[in-house]
Amino acid sequence: MSSTHAHTEALLDELRRLCPGRVSTTPPDRVAYARDLWPRGLIGIAAGEVAPHPPDAVVWPTSTREVSEIVRACARAGTPIVPFGAGSGVCGGALPLHGGIVVDLKRMRRMVALDAPAGAATFEAGILGDHLEHELNRRGYTMGHFPSSIMCSTFGGWLAARSAGQLSTRYGKIEDMCRALTFVDGTGEIHELESGGTPDLVQLVLGSEGTLGLITQATCTIHPLPETRLYRGWSFPRVAAGCEAMRRLLQRGLRPAVVRLYDELDSFLNRRGGHAQESVPPVSVGTALEDWLAMLRPSGRAGDWKRRAISVALARPDLVNRVAGALLPYAQSGCLLVLGFEGERTLAEAEARAASVELERAGGTDLGPGPGERWLKNRYAISFRMSKVFDAGAFVDTMEVAASWDRLLDLYTAVRQAISPMAFIMAHFSHAYTDGCSIYFTFAARGGSRGEAERKYDAIWRAGLAAVSRVGATISHHHGVGLSKAPFMPEEHGEAMAIYRALKDVLDPSQVMNPGKMGL
User: Fold this and answer.
1) pLDDT tens for residues 388-426?
2) What is the dihedral of CA 146, 150, 154, 156, to 10 degrees?
3) Using one digit for the tens of pLDDT, what is the confidence trace for 160-184?
4) Alpha carbon of 320 to those of 75, 265, 391: distances in Å?
5) DSSP secondary structure code for residue 358 in this structure
């Protein structure tokens, strides 16, 4: 037996003592925890590489004390630790690049406390988002945090990546909700942190993606379930007009639960029946491409025409984007804006009336409740319908960035120009605040062989994030950084990266916590 193997076996024996019956080294478990949903990794999986970065073992703790002991054991052994929620991340943040131990927190899934007078609830980090919301709903409350991945992401994952829910304009992002958290650093020490201090250590831990330690539970603000929900659709002639309307709403002091503007292409591709009232929000790039290409469909039928057409179109994204840019100004379909208010009935109705006045002044056309209500009903669909593009031998990904209002349109133009020659691209604007807004770009392309696809994928991200940096925007709003955005961390944060590295040296002196992520 080699010394390295003996060293690993000694650590595994210690972990089995700490967590009896909850340590696995079986091939199925190691394969299952070898990846997350980073689309670049999915390219490799489609080519047959099912477990690019298998961990040495997976362990399932059931308490903060067990997490502390696991970290102490791994730190003594110098063995990497990768925290794991539900594996739904799209940036490679949960990949065990250097093997080591994956710590899956999903057995830590209790509601610890509900303090109704304080408007707060405490949950363990491993609870799935959908289960968390159901626990609150049963008691008449909501956290107001609804990411598209709510059914397959955990509370701890939200905290680790500074997640944003679809209703963040009203309720805030997860870092706005978090009041306190329990955190195990890279030495195994347990910290009880409260927000609002100087410095605010809670904010230093949130978004660190497991590079400083593991969050085991947290206390967040909760709200009574809304008495009413008022959702409807509006149409604006162009992106610029819609963005200006959003800015005016937010800076007037209105707080819609949802304000989402789809660009001309995104809106046009998803019209149904040619009637504005039948507009529905986008469901996937694959569906959008089917609709777009149906206009060019030759006579006659072919069994898998749609799949082949998508594949052909993704091979020439520059042409598709140019044709769209040339035709859409004459399509008169406009840009769809989904707007929703919720809460106490009288206040929600008053805000909705004030918003209608403001949107009409900004040149909007009221489409009635249909588009808004359909968005609310189908708002999680996109998470389950992205496979069409991969089925066509291509890849699809999203790039969520953000900027202040004065830079927002420059950001939109710059990223589109950077990516359009290489990928089919569309976008929507959401997560709007008084000072700025996020843009959520969706792009798809075909790369041929695995190597060609990975090179094209990397080129798209380099070009897109370089454009973001040139405009002076931020490279991530809510998906995190992981591996996909890590190369641009020093460019965006400059000397602040030295502070981050110093913080890691203090909290994780053995450098075992999720190594290689976040630009470290």
Assistant:
1) 677 777 888 999 999 999 999 999 999 999 999 999 899
2) -20
3) 999 999 999 999 999 999 999 999 9
4) 52, 11, 20
5) H
Helix/strand/coil for 463 = helix
Residue 139, C-beta contacts closer than 8 angstroms, at least 6 positions apart: 114, 116
pTM: 0.92
Report how far residue 210's alpha carbon sits from residue 92's, in angstroms, rounded to the nearest whole number: 12
Query: Strands 101-104 and 57-59, how do they pair?
Result: parallel
| CATH architecture, range 3-105 | 2-Layer Sandwich (3.30)
Average pLDDT in the 378-389 region? Answer: 73
457 burial type by CB count under 10 A (0-12 exposed, 13-18 middle, 19+ buried) = buried
What is the distance of C-alpha 299 from the center of its chain?
A: 41
Cβ-Cβ contacts under 8 Å for 346 (sequence gap 6 or more): none
Yes or no: say if 377 and 369 are a contact pair by the CB < 8 Å rule.
no
Pairing status of strand 395-404 against strand 335-343: unpaired
What is the second-level CATH architecture of the domain 228-471?
A: 3-Layer(aba) Sandwich (3.40)
Q: Which helix (H) or strand (E) holds 307?
A: helix 305-315
Type and span of the H or E element at 406: helix 405-419
Residue 361: how many CB atoms within 10 A of its CB?
10
8 Å CB contact between 39 and 397: yes
Cβ atoms within 10 Å of 69's Cβ, excluding its own: 19
**C-alpha–C-alpha distance, residues 131 and 20, integer Å:** 26
Instruction: Kindly provide the b/e burial profile for residues 466-499, where b requires at least 16 CB atoms within 10 angstroms of the residue's own CB.
Output: bbbbebebbbbbbbbbbbbbbebbeebeeeebee
The domain ranges of the chain are 3-105, 228-471
Ranges of H-type helices in 139-284: 155-161, 168-171, 174-177, 201-205, 239-251, 264-269
Question: How far is residue 312's CA from residue 500's CA, in Å, rounded to a whole number?
Answer: 45
